[in-house]
Amino acid sequence: MRIAPAVIDWFAATGRDLPWRRPGFTAWGTLVSEFMLQQTPVARVIPRLDEWLQRWPTPADLAAASPGDAVRAWDRLGYPRRALNLHAAAVAITERHGGVVPESVDDLLALPGIGDYTARAVAVFAYGHRHPVVDINVRRVLARAVNGLGEAGVPSTKRDLASMEEQLPEDVPAAALANAGIMELGAIVCTARAPRCDVCPIADMCRWRAEGYPEFEGKRAPQQKKFEGSDRQVRGLIMAELRGSDIPVTMLEIESVWADDAQRARSLTGLVADGLVVETSDRTFELPGQ
User: Fold this and answer.
1) What per-residue string of b and e applies to 114-130 under the rule 16 or more CB within 10 Å gives b?
2) Phi-psi region of 289 (alpha: psi -120 to 50; beta: other; left: phi over 0)
3) What is the structure's pLDDT at 166?
4) Which of 86, 110, 75, 84 is nearest to 31 (CA)?
5) Which positions are catalytic?
6) Residue 187, φ and ψ in degrees, nearest 5
7) HEC string of the chain?
8) Hey, what CATH class is 136-210 in?
9) What is the per-residue pLDDT across 131-151, written as a single tens digit (0 to 9) for each?
10) What pLDDT, in 10s, does the model give residues 50-85?
11) Lowest-pLDDT range, 62-71, 101-110, 147-156, 189-198?
12) CATH class for the region spanning 231-286
């Protein structure tokens, strides 16, 4: 079953006006947006993306800044390791590719912090190449509409890419629209908890709907642990303390952000090991390159 034609028509008529979809948006902007969109909602990304591209409009601009500047500017987007990876990618692009974001999947994969999804997304959405692009939204749509499953289950890069490849039109521009459209459909219509089948452009083709929405009985992907009280929360509080200071932060100041000594120490040790925090000789802490 091919769902692409109906999805493309729907997407052309109703797709959201997002910065990275506008004509003239740069490949660098696309790369930055893809880093930011990893596990962060679109509404939080858009203002931060605009700030980043005004401050660092090219890879060379970001490469010339310190890693600490990147982490500080990342602010509360979450998972700040992405900021270090993006900075490292900017350095590599500047040194290896003359400051131009490469367009081949292999060259993109060779950059720091870039995985299969991001490499394919940049190649397709920035440069117009024909590749399947698969995220959790795409996996959900294909699982339901094509396979009749209520959930996508455990990811498999090889299987998921092959499944999406089957849906892509041979026409290159149409393939790019199919990628974007199926992703959009999963993001705003075929959502995980409350699918809006009444407005779905492929409702009449959906196998899951036709079979009466059977319960998913397969193996599920591991669920992300809750944020409240987690090491992620403590790490975020420590990072906020460092981002808010122009001078190194003392251990006493870090101790004030969380009462549990063991959890706080574990979180701080992890941040240092990840390169997000640097411990100075006098037992204070700062952002890298501060």
Assistant:
1) bebbbbbbbbbbbeebb
2) left
3) 96
4) 86
5) 34
6) -75, -35
7) CCCHHHHHHHHHHHCCCCHHHCCCCCHHHHHHHHHHHCCCCHHHHHHHHHHHHHHCCCHHHHHCCCHHHHHHHHCCCCCCHHHHHHHHHHHHHHHHCCCCCCCCHHHHHCCCCCCHHHHHHHHHHCCCCCCCCCCHHHHHHHHHHHCCCCCCCCCCHHHHHHHHHCCCCCCHHHHHHHHHHHHHHHHHCCCCCCCCHHHCCCHHHCHHHHCCCCCCCCCCCCCCCCCCCCHHHHHHHHHHHHHCCCCCEEHHHHHCCCCCHHHHHHHHHHHHHCCCCEECCCCEEECCCC
8) mainly alpha
9) 999 999 999 999 999 999 999
10) 999 999 999 999 999 999 999 999 988 888 999 999
11) 147-156
12) mainly alpha
The encoded tokens of residue 154 equal 């455990």
What value does the mean pLDDT of the chain take? Answer: 93
25-50 mean pLDDT:
94
Instruction: Give which of 140, 178, 134 is closest to 4, Cα–Cα.
Output: 178
26-125: CATH topology is Endonuclease III; domain 1 (1.10.340)
User: 33-37, 103-107, 179-183, 251-255: lowest mean pLDDT where?
Assistant: 251-255
What is the spatial distance between Cα 33 and Cα 42, in angstroms, rounded to a whole number?
9
The domains of the chain are located at 26-125, 136-210, 231-286
Among the listed residues 171, 172, 149, the one whose alpha carbon sits nearest the alpha carbon of residue 160: 149
Whether the CB-CB separation of 186 and 137 falls below 8 Å is answered with yes
Return the residue matching tokens 């400051």: 99
Q: What is the pLDDT of residue 37?
A: 94
pLDDT of the residue at 290? 65
